[in-house]
Structure prediction request, 312 residues.
Amino acid sequence: MEQFVRDQIKAIKEQVGETDKVLLGLSGGVDSAVCAALISKAIPGRLICIFVDHGFMRKDEPREIEETFSKMDLTLVCVDAEKRFLDAVKGVTDPEQKRKIIGKEFIEVFNEEAAKFSDVKYLAQGTIYPDIVESGDGKKGVVKSHHNVGGLPEKIKFDGLVEPLKTLYKDEVRAVGRLLGLPKAIVNRQPFPGPGLAVRCIGELTKERLDILREADAIVREEIGRLRRKPNQYFAVLTDMKSVGVKNDERTYAYTVAIRAVSTVNFMTAKCFPLSQIAIGRISKRITDEVEGINRVVLDVTDKPPATIEWE
Ligand code: XMP
Prediction:
């Protein structure tokens, strides 16, 4: 990994040259964070990080991202594009459609922001090896068009792409992050897909449904986060199914939320994580007590394959 970091720093310097600037999209995930650290080390002062808040971020995440990255040696731009993205996906329920629209919109916001920096020549991305494999190589069928591969338009207005992590698996990306001295909170952060909660909110994407999911997801992460032995990835999924329940002797008709928790080494395959009944019970009680709009909690017990980790 030391050699990898040295090689990549050299390669980035050679590709970008002495004066050009690089633009990077911060998603809030570990990949783009490590990518930012690596590139700013190679070309200090010449990396511009754009964080597009597409409205599909987890609870409190936009604020946390701003706090963390504004302390680093780079230029940070935060864009509030929630309304624009929600308008773009209005009425769309097909998973691949959602991914494609969000990916396209993301690049458009990017191009608009990039236009404000006339001297930016390169676009950097935190693409990692599984993103490329699972987006299809033309031989096998596409599993999912990943945000940072599928959404690229052909007439991109940059001289080139900087993708220093594209040969690495997730565990290797974390090792690079540790080597670069990134804080533990970032290096050990759970992976988060580019389209964010949009692929964990089955059915139509509305602010109201996303807010319900944000609250439920915060409880899942808080409760599982305090366990001594944790899954590698854990989150809530808001299904599009409503069912009948009862609260304070009144009938309810509300959404079902699913708990997803997996253990995995490289995210290409995964095992359902055996959460204790106590943890499951606590999560279920808290969600149904605290989150308006949910009256049923189920547990996803599927491995990958046959399921994928994300539901869409
Ligand atoms: P799946 O659902 O394909 O997910 O089993 C494997 C891992 O990849 C993450 N994931 C994404 N990461 N852009 C990303 O950067 C994406 O579009 C994307 N979709 C899924 C997922 O969270 C899991 O860790």
Notes: The longest strand covers residues 233-247.
